[in-house]
Design a protein that fits this description.
The complex is a heterodimer of chains A (151) and B (208). Chain A is mostly helical and 151 residues long. In chain A, 70% of the residues lie in helices and 0% in strands. Helix content of chain B is 37%, strand content 2%. Chain B is flat and about 135 Å long. Classes of the chains: A mainly alpha (151), B mainly alpha (208). The interface between A and B is large, with 41 and 32 residues.
């Protein structure tokens, strides 16, 4: 259970301390509302995942400022996948965690968890355009960081 | 499904295989502190020992003890108060009625307003209504009845000045309800100012 929960928390965290806070609050919620869990509605893991995800979103909202910016179509930066392939998991995570909090949250939700912009906008209470802008910003920043690493 | 770029797919793969840091103990300590009570560990592993006496039971015991203590104190207070009332009642002397309870051997002790009963044969003495206190134990110590003493005392009673009651139709004496009530009026406003003084006369304008 710990590994499963920690993997979810780590995706939305800026560092290990952040993940620890998300998990602590999530498990407190689990203990307090364990009586409301209904096995007929779904598995315990699905229920736990939902609680951790909601806690992570609350965490992101607290630490992030989502300014209302509208996305304008721009040229997508080119990043070679071989560069990422050569890096280990910890390095990739550290690279993504260097993104600004709001941009990091949108990038993880879109790329790692596969949420569409509409759903990201609903969960983070931002517009779809803002979500798209943050994704585009993440791509640009990652390209710059990778170029810096290469050099 | 989102269309991911090739490098983004690589990032997603790396994320899913990321190493999990061992922070179970720290997280469990946080949970423990936040819940404010000890909870049993799960499979993922809190290693903190489970307290043998849950704090909830201790709290309930303490509360019960407090209730018992309060009830005990209340009962003791009530019992003590009742005892105090009984002692006070015992201290007050009760004068028994003697007309029927007097025996031949009893002697009557007369206080300042008491008098012997009809036993003395004096008709005037019968009219005195004060009740005497009879104490059998003092039979030998009390002096025998002396009618001359009674006569002297009656004389002193007879010499009291008569009460003078004023006649009802006396005009100089007013009954409490008949006394006239004169309302006291308060003066209105400042003294020396009449209604005419309040008239406002517009001044001539200097300007314009």
């Amino acid at each position: 259970v710990y590994g499963f929960a920690m993997a979810i928390a780590l995706k939305y965290s800026r560092d290990n301390t952040d993940a620890k806070d998300i998990l602590s609050h999530s498990f407190v919620k689990v203990f307090k509302s364990i009586t409301s869990f209904d096995a007929a509605k779904g598995s315990f893991h699905a229920w736990l995942k939902k609680i951790i995800f909601n806690e992570a979103i609350d965490h992101i909202k607290q630490r992030s400022r989502f300014s209302n910016v509208e996305f304008e179509k721009a040229e997508e930066p080119h990043i070679e996948s071989t560069v990422i392939e050569k890096m280990d998991e910890a390095e990739v995570m550290a690279l993504v965690q260097q993104l600004p909090p709001a941009t990091h949250a949108v990038f993880v939700m879109y790329v790692v968890n596969g949420y569409p912009h509409k759903e990201i906008a609903e969960k983070l209470k931002i517009s779809e355009g803002t979500s798209k802008w943050h994704l585009s910003e993440a791509r640009k920043l990652l390209q710059q960081k990778l170029i810096n690493l290469k050099n | 499904v989102n269309q991911l770029l090739p490098y983004e797919q690589k990032i997603a793969d790396k994320f899913s295989h990321a190493a999990i840091p061992d922070m179970a103990d720290e997280i469990w300590a946080n949970i423990d502190a936040e819940l404010g009570s000890d909870t049993p560990g799960d499979d993922g592993g809190g290693n903190n020992p489970v307290s043998s006496s849950p704090s909830g039971t201790g709290l309930a015991t303490g509360f019960k003890f407090l209730i018992v203590a309060v009830v005990t104190i209340a009962v003791l207070f009530i019992v003590r108060k009742r005892n105090a009332n009984k002692v006070k009642k015992k201290d007050i002397p009760v004068a028994p009625a003697i007309e029927k309870n007097i025996t031949k051997d009893s002697t009557v002790v007369v206080d300042s307003f008491s008098e012997t009963p009809a036993k003395s044969g004096n008709k005037e003495a019968k009219t005195i209504t004060a009740k005497p206190i009879v104490k059998d134990s003092l039979t030998k110590q009390v002096m025998p009845f002396n009618p001359s003493l009674v006569k002297d005392r009656q004389d002193s009673i007879a010499t009291l000045p008569p009460v003078i009651i004023p006649p009802e139709n006396n005009p100089t004496i007013l009954k409490r309800d008949e006394q006239p009530i004169v309302p006291v009026k308060k003066g209105k406003g400042a003294k020396g100012i009449k209604d005419a003084d309040y008239k406002i006369i517009p001044k001539r304008k200097d300007s314009l």
